Structure prediction request, 566 residues.
Amino acid sequence: MNVGVLPRLEPAGIDGYMVRLFDTIDEDNLAWLSALSRDCETAFGQALVDLVPSYTTLLVIFDPLQISAWQARIRLSELLARLTPDPALAGGKLHDVATWYHPEVGPDLARVAELSSLTEEAVIKAHSEREYRVFALGFSPGFAFMGLLDSSLTCPRLDTPRSRVPRGSVAIAGQQTAVYPTVTPGGWNLIGRTAARLFDRDRDGFSLMKVGDRVRFVAVDRNTFESEGGDPTPVSPTTKETR
Amino acid sequence: MANRAMVGFRVMRAGPLALLQDAGRFGTRHIGVTQGGPADMHAWAWANQLAGNQWGTPVLEVTLGGLELEAERDLTIAVTGADLTARHQNQPLPLWRRVRIAAGERVSFGAPAAGVRAYLAVSGGFKAEPVLGSVACVVREQLGGFDGHGRKLEEGDQLTLSSAEGFSPHAAEAEAPVPEKPDYSAPLTLDLLPGAQIADFTGKSLFDAFNASWQVDQRADRMGVRLSGPALRCNITSMVSEGISMGAVQVPPDGQPIALLNDRQTIGGYPRLGNLTALSASRLSQCQPGHQVRLRPIGFEAALREHRQFMGNFSFLPSSNNI
Prediction:
């Protein structure tokens, strides 16, 4: 492992720095990452191109014609020297995600139950009674990596990813959980489905969730799921990729 | 009625993949939305320049040919990038220069002779409704393009133009300078800025990375280009996922590097050798499978100087003839 003092500024091309703040995943990281993101927006202004927060890092991309990498480095060092965690965002926005947990839309419920030596009911309870934080977005637009799961639910990805995971599928893998915002391939264990739109072009900012948000999954029945606009079409068993 | 759609071309044949691309989608990486934009920024920028357009004007990116267009009105265009045996009224269409097309005439692309992607700019620019600030077409994300939902061109599409005719014949060169027209078939050396994990690769792997000849794999698209050659070993096998910048060269456990391009996923967790410069990433995107490439470390100052020099060719100011 790359040993060094944190935080650290690592070059990422002529137009970026990777700001490495931590070396392990922790909910407490989020308040620091959120504070640094906000400080960067102020300090870089028009020269800022993109900010990519993730579990332990913030990737800062700037316009190298407006600000040189040397200037950017100095500016980031100054921000880091007086960085304090963001008390306002320590909580993050809270989302309740109404979820219909059922084998028809969550075909891996039985697999997860078996791997965790729990009943399906206990899996649902363990998943829905905990509050999660959004650590990162990626994989596809609006796809939020949330954690951490109760350790009893930790289970590996599918050996063979599905070529087509339905929109709104609630899934788990490793110590994390997520909702598939759009139809994509995917290898996580599907345990239910929500009518919530994680990525919606009619919403300001498109994505329901941002890094640092808090999320609870609330178990609902099929009628509630459908009345909220959920599509109960079962996951087809034939949509697994063969490669 | 300045906003009424003005059709420039009709698509007679769509080919495998033709996409509308502006400079890309920025300020969206934090919600998992990728950059998009032209895989070959160099050729894309010259297409606009020759057509008299500002940097960032939407252009067609034509991959591997097959596209045939019919002009709905008199137009001025410029085609740059790959030699996809483009024709104008069944005569070879000159590349890297401004060309007049009369209403009813056809422009078509055949099989690739050199390179992979051609860029067709029209004076005044193509027009589409931006999504998250950009018309860059990313099929996988269903964002951008003429329909806003990331659809590639299809037969029968009517390609709309910006109502503001931006063309000023005196504002642009008629032809790109010779050194700016790459030979995409020539052996290629890519400039790579070493990154933070470079020292975590084994000594032999570092030697191999910069001395071996790498072959462009079949798995090459707008997300990334895989290189095959000696397996590179890194003391870090996986990392906590983090943001991935343009041109990052990641090395998964199989040791075969992947250069990540415009449509890359926004975060990832493999160690990286560093980043290709923007111009090297552009050149790599023009390599057909089997092409031999080498990697060469470049210093920060040299990379920045090269970038500034390149960007100095182009016009960023608001066009005065629109007033």
In short: Residues 1 and 241 of chain A are 35 Å apart (CA to CA). Residues 8-81 of chain A form a domain with the Gyrase A; domain 2 fold (CATH 3.30.1360.40). Chain A touches chain B through 49 residues (CB under 8 Å).
